[in-house]
Amino acid sequence: MERKRSSDFSQPLLDLYDDYAHGRIGRRGFLEGAAKFAVGGLTAEALLASLSPNYAWAQQIAPDDPRLKCETIEYPSPDGAGKMAGYLTRPAAVEGKLPAVLVVHENRGLTPYIEDVARRLGIAGFLALAPDALTPLGGYPGNDDQGREMQARRNPEEMIQDFIAAARWLKKHPLSSGKVGVVGFCYGGAVANTLAVRIPDVIAAAVPYYGRQPEPEDVPKITVPLLLHYAEFDQRINAGWPAYEEALEAAGVEYQVHFYPGVNHAFHNDSTPRYDEAAAKLSWQRTLEFFNAHLR
C-alpha cells in the first residue's frame, strides 16, 4: 500500500480517526462518520485502511541487525500481573554498564513500531526494555483493533504496577548503570508522566510523547527532569497543558516542552499517515540528547 501523508486527509477526518484509535468511538461510528469524506470512488472502509497502521513502514532497524542483541525476557511484577514479558535490546558489543530506557507502548500492546523504537535506543547505546501490557492476556495479538480491546480489559493500576516493576528490573539489570529513563507514546506518554510522579527514586529522566498529564496536586512529587513533546493539532491532550505548565512552574520542576507545528497526535509513529518525518526526527534527536545528558 502506498504511504499516505496527513495532508492527504482533511483534519476533521484525522480527528475522527483519533477518536476511533483511542476507543471513543467504535468501528461502526468511524465508518458512519467517514462516509461523508468518501468521495472519488473511495469508500469509508478504504479510508480506514489508509489511516490504519502499516508496520512495514515503521521498521527502521531490522530485528536481526548485527549491531544489536534483541530478546524477549520475562520479569516479575508482584503488584501487577505477576509475570510480564518484554522486548529487551542492547548494543551487541558492550563495554561497561549501559544507561537504560523503559519504552512504554500506546493503547494496544507491544506493536512492531514500539519494538523498533526499542531497537533505535539500542543502536544509540542504551539498554532498552519495552514491556507488553497484554502479557497476561496472551500478548499483542498482531491486530491493533483487538489489541485496543484487550488493553481496555486490563486493570489500569495493575498495568502501572507492571511498568513500575519493569523500571525496577531495568535498574537492577547486570548491564544497567542504574540510571533509568522512560519514554512513552500516547497511553505510554501518560505512563511516563505517572512514573515521574510515582517512582522518582527509580526514574532519572522522563520523555512523554503527547501523553495525558498528571493531576496538578501530584506534580510537586516530580523530582526528575522532563522532556515533553506535543502536537499542534492534538487538542484533546493539549487541553491539559496549561494546568500542567502552571503546576510545573510552581513546583520548580526542570522541564523542556516542544509543540510541533502542523502535526497530529502520534506524529512519531511512522506506521500511519499521521507520521510527520520532520517532527519525528527532530523530536527523536532531542530525546536522545536529553537521555545522553541525564543518564550518562
Features:
single chain; 296 residues; alpha/beta; Rossmann fold; 2 domains; 10 helices
- Cross-sheet strand order for the largest sheet: 1-2-4-3-5-6-7-8
Number of strands: 8
Q: Give the strand content.
A: 15-25%
CATH superfamily of the largest domain: Alpha/Beta hydrolase fold, catalytic domain
How is the biggest beta sheet arranged? 8 strands, mixed
Morphology: globular
Listing every helix as H and every strand as E from the N terminus to the C terminus, the arrangement reads: HHHEEEHEHHEHEEHHEH
**What is the domain tally?**
2
**Which structural category do the helix and sheet elements fall into?**
alpha/beta
How many alpha or pi helices? Answer: 10
Question: What is the average per-residue confidence, as pLDDT, rounded to a whole number?
Answer: 95
CATH topology of the largest domain: Rossmann fold
Radius of gyration: 19 Å
CATH architecture descriptor name of the largest domain: 3-Layer(aba) Sandwich
Straight-line N-to-C gap: 41 Å
Low-confidence stretches: none
CATH class placement of the largest domain: Alpha Beta
- Estimated helix fraction: 25-40%
